[in-house]
Amino acid sequence: MSTVLETEEHQALRAAVAALGKRYGRDYMTTVIREGSHTDELWAEAAKLGYLGVNLPEEYGGGGAGMAELSIVLEELGAAGSPLLMMIVSPAICGTVIARFGTDEQKQKWLPGLADGSLTMAFGITEPDAGSNSHRITTTARRDGTGPDADWLLTGRKVFVSGVDIADATLIVGRTEDARSGNLKPCLFIVPREAPGFGRNQIDMELHAPEKQFELVLDDVRLPADALVGDEDAGLLQLFAGLNPERIMTAAFGIGMGRFALSKAVEYARTRQVWKAPIGSHQAIAHPLATAHIDLELSRLMMQKAARLYDDGDDVGAGEAANMAKYAAGEACVKAVDQAVHTLGGNGLTREYGLASLITASRVARIAPVSREMILNYISHQTLGLPKSY
Question: Which residues contact 364 (CB under 8 A, 6 or more apart)?
C-alpha cells in the first residue's frame, strides 16, 4: 500500500512493525487461539520495542507521539495476521483518557505500565439494555458518606468487555447524580480486577480470538475516592475523548485484517492455474480484488485524517472523521475477506489458508464498538443537519 503521504518516521515505523508482525504471523495467532492462551510473547516484544505506548506521554515512559503512530502499529500487525485487540482498549482508550484527564497520582500509577505493557486495562461501557448509549447507562455510582474523600459504591452490569481476565483493571463508565439538578451524568472509574463485588462471566462466542469477552456484574463495588478519573463534572467530555481513539484504532484493526486477507487472495490468484493461466489473469477474479484494494486505501486515508485531527486537538473534527473511518474500514474489511474467501474457493474454508476464521472476525469491525447504523445516525445528524428520528 502506498505510503507517499506519510513522513519518513511513519514509513520507518510501519516497516519495523511489519517486520515484527512477519516474525509472528497468522500461524502464531491460530496456535494461541487453539491452545486457549494469550498473545503474551508478541505483546511483550511489541512493548519492549516501544510500540504499545507510542501514543503516551514521554514523561511516563511513552513515545510522546499520537494516534497516527499507534494506528500504524495495529494496522501492520493486523496485515501480518496477528493483530493485538487490546491495543484498542489499553493504550488507546484507557491510556488516552488517563493521560488527558487523570490526576497526577493516576498518571503515575498507570501510565508507565500501560506504556511498557506491564499493565493492561479493559474498558466497560456496553450494557445489556443500553448498548453503548451513554445516556441510557444504568450502572450507577453513589458516595458512601459525605465529603470529597468518601468511598464510591458502584452497581450495575456490563457486557462484551474484552480481556477482563488479563487486565489489571477495567475503566468503567458509570453515572452519578448531579447534586444541583438530580440528573445522572456519566463518570469513569478505575476498578481493579480483584475488587470485592466485581464479578465476571465469560460469554460463549463463535468469534475465535485470544481476547475473551465478558459480562461484568458490579455488586456495590467499593472504590476509594481517587478511583474516579478526572473531574466529576467533565465525564462526557472525558468519555468522548476515549471513544475517538477507539474508532480510529478499530479502523486500523479492520484495515489490517482486510490487507492480510487480500494479500492471501492475490498470492493465490497469481499462482493458481486453471486452463494454463493464473486465475488472477481473469477480470472476474482481478477486478473484485482491485476494488477491495481501493476500498482499503480510501479507508486508510480517512483513518489518517481522523488521527491527524485528533492529535492536533480537534476533538469535534476528529469525531466526524473517526466515525467515517470506522464505517469505511468495517465495510472494506468485510468485503476484502469475503472476496478473498471466494477467490480461494474451497481452499478459502480450510484451516490451512487461515481465511475462514476471518469471516466471523471481520464482522467485529462492522459491529463494534458502534454499529454502522449508529454511525450513519451520527453523520446524518451532526454532519448533514438532518432531524433525529429518536
Answer: 207, 253
Amino acid at 13: L
Query: Torsion over CA of 352, 357, 362 and 363, rounded to 10 degrees?
Result: 160
- Whether 216 and 170 have beta carbons less than 8 Å apart is answered as yes
Residue 235: pLDDT above 80? Answer: no
* Distance linking the first and last C-alpha atoms of the chain: 41
Q: Are 302 and 325 in contact (CB under 8 A)?
A: yes
The grid coordinates listed for 71 are 494506528
Binning pLDDT at 50, 70 and 90, where does residue 3 land? very low
pLDDT in tens, 324-361: 999 999 999 999 999 999 999 999 999 999 999 999 99
Model confidence over 203-215: pLDDT tens digits? 999 998 999 999 9
**Secondary structure element (H or E) that encloses residue 74, with its range:** helix 67-79
C-alpha cell at 160: 462484551
Question: % helix / strand / coil in the chain, to the nearest 5?
Answer: 55, 15, 30
What's the grid cell of residue 369?
A: 464498538
